[in-house]
Amino acid sequence: MKLKFLSTMLFTAVLLVAGCSENQPNEPENLTGQLDLNSEFGGYTASNENYAFDEPLLIEETTDDVAYNDPMTAHPIFDSLMHDTFAGRYHIRMVWGKLRYDSSVTQATSWDGSLETNVGALAIKRIIHWELNQDFILERTDRKLIEWLSTTTVHNDGLAVDLYVPPVRPMFDTSYSWVVDSLGDSSEVITVDTTMPVVDPVEVTFTTAPYTRTFTLDELKKLDTIIYLDDSNAVAFHAFKADRRACPA
């Protein structure tokens, strides 16, 4: 009986010594958003993630995407298009060069070119990976045309633009005539003929030496495509039609 008691005490002492070890396990952090099935929304909150998830490469990518103040948008005609809720607006993003950074590339590629629409107006919203003293937006003199100088090697350049398309409005032809009835009373008759004008289909053309392509308006409603070229360069296009409905008062 005494032997059994001593064995029990010895085992308890071993446990106490092990429990007093300096190598204590870390306490789990009480993180916001930790999964908790017993709390409302499972422990998740509406707080935002850290910018770019704190990933250095993602942060570098987004900081190279810079807002551009296009002076062409100050033109009165352009201003009227931008504020016309019946005008169509399409957002277009274009990137050309190496879609993934490749430090082994030494051959430079010239992408000097343009983006042009036959109807409406183009506004530059952002420049992508534009390098100082190497890539340039040329002075704009035509609301339908954007021109640039661009050279890529290890990475890419690009632009994000908005296309504004004026609405097709009906044409009204009004005529006036007088009608005399059997009693000799006369009355004026106003006749209004309504016709829709015939307009050219909207086209947007991307032009560079390595690659050229023309898009229809239907394509720009929902576009997500990448064209790979023979020299391992590529051109990526993404576009969509933006909602122009006015916000409720």
Describe what you observe in this structure.
This protein has 249 residues and is mostly beta strands. It has a domain at 69-168 and 201-242: Immunoglobulin-like (Sandwich), CATH 2.60.40. Helices cover 15% and strands 38% of the residues. It contains four helices and 15 strands. The protein has helices spanning 2-19, 56-63, 76-82, 217-220; strands spanning 65-67, 88-97, 109-110, 113-117, 121-128, 136-137, 145-149, 151-152, 156-165, 171-180, 186-195, 203-208, 212-216, 222-228, 234-242. The strands form four sheets. Strands 1-5-9-2-15-14 form a six-stranded antiparallel sheet. A hairpin with a 5-residue loop joins strand 14 (222-228) and strand 15. The longest helix has 18 residues, at 2-19. The N and C termini lie far apart (89 Å). Residues 1-8, 13-21, 28-33 and 56-62 have low confidence and may be disordered.
Would you give the CATH topology of the domain at 69-168 and 201-242?
A: Immunoglobulin-like
Helix and strand composition category: mainly beta
Strand content: 35-45%
Separation of termini? 89 Å
SS summary, helix count: 4
Give me the side-by-side strand order of the main sheet. 1-5-9-2-15-14
Main sheet? Answer: 6 strands, antiparallel
> Which series of helices and strands comes N to C?
HHEHEEEEEEEEEEEEHEE
Indicate the mean pLDDT.
Answer: 79
**What is the CATH-assigned architecture of the domain at 69-168 and 201-242?**
Sandwich
- What is the count of β-strands? 15
Give the tags:
249 residues; 15% helix; 15 strands; 5-stranded antiparallel beta sheet; 4 helices; mainly beta; 6-stranded antiparallel beta sheet; Immunoglobulin-like; single chain; disordered N terminus
